[in-house]
Amino acid sequence: GFLMQTSEMLQKICMRNLVRKYCRGLTAERKVQLQQKVVTSAVFSGKKEGYLESLSQPFLETRLKENDLNPKVLQLIRGENIKYVTPVIKYDRNGFKARERLLVLTQSSAYVVEMAKIKQKIEYSTLKGISTSNLSDGIVVIHVPEDNKQKGDVILQCEHVFEVVTKLCMLANKQSLVKVVKGSLRFRVGSGKEGTMVFTVGPEPQVFKDKTGQLTVV
């Protein structure tokens, strides 16, 4: 019995040392990758199409560099540490017109940027939720509080949806607020009004306003 216990103990110590050695050998970059992928797994595993395929693709630190941003925008958000920038398509809350924008994530806020203008600022502390569908589309809805500062929830389409949502919920420290929805979701248009977005499966991906005025994502 004693030898068995000793053997088991040695195995545990050996294993612990191996794990420690492995962790020490990890580069800072690789550690960040693993931390992010753990969050992605917690949020999306078994819930959103395309999750398994995304596992083998490392997340980039950012999709665009800080100097790709307009100097005016940089001036407006100076003092905030820019962590991630990516091109996105933003859909207007009313007519659902698609517009090319940049999503800029700093350590304290998310910004929707058009060229030299900041179109919307969402402080992480006020963030009410982040929604995506269970299908393979790249739609992300950032839910904001009902107040005079906010025009309504932000509807974005992102090419790298797992990366964007992971970065956003980690920076905001609001992993629990990410929802993966089936069928449809409600979003706020501003001044107490709500809109509906419907997710369906079709032969080719498209986003359009249907006859009932709903935003349909295929």
What does this entry look like structurally?
By secondary structure, the protein is α+β, with helices and mostly antiparallel strands. The chain has a single domain, classed as PH-domain like (Roll), CATH 2.30.29.30. It contains five helices and twelve strands. It has helices at 2-25, 28-44, 51-54, 71-76, 161-172; strands at 82-91, 98-106, 109-114, 117-123, 129-133, 139-143, 154-157, 178-181, 184-190, 193-199, 207-209, 215-217. The strands form two sheets. The protein has an eight-stranded mixed sheet. The protein has a four-stranded mixed sheet with strand order 9-10-12-11, with no helix packed on it. A hairpin with a 6-residue loop joins strand 1 and strand 2. The longest helix is centred in the N-terminal third of the chain and has 24 residues, at 2-25.
CATH class: Mainly Beta
Shape: globular
Which quaternary structure do these chains form? single chain
| Major β-sheet annotation | 8 strands, mixed
The CATH architecture comes to: Roll
Q: Beta-strand level of the residues, as a percent range?
A: 25-35%
The largest sheet has its strands arranged as 4-3-2-1-7-6-5-8
Mean pLDDT: 92
| Number of domain units | 1
